[in-house]
Amino acid sequence: MAASSRWEPGEFLAQLTEEEIADLCASGRRRGWDRGATVMSESDTSDWVLVLTSGRVKVSSHTAGGTEVVLAVRGPGALLGEMSFISGEPRSGTVTALEPVEGVVVRDFAGFLADHGRIAVLLLRLVVGRLRDSDRKRVEYGAFDTTGRVATRLVELAERFGEPAGGAVRVALPLSQDELAGWTGASREAVSKALRTLRDRGLIETGRRRVVVYDLDGLRRRAR
Question: Mean pLDDT throughout 134-163?
Answer without folding.
Answer: 86
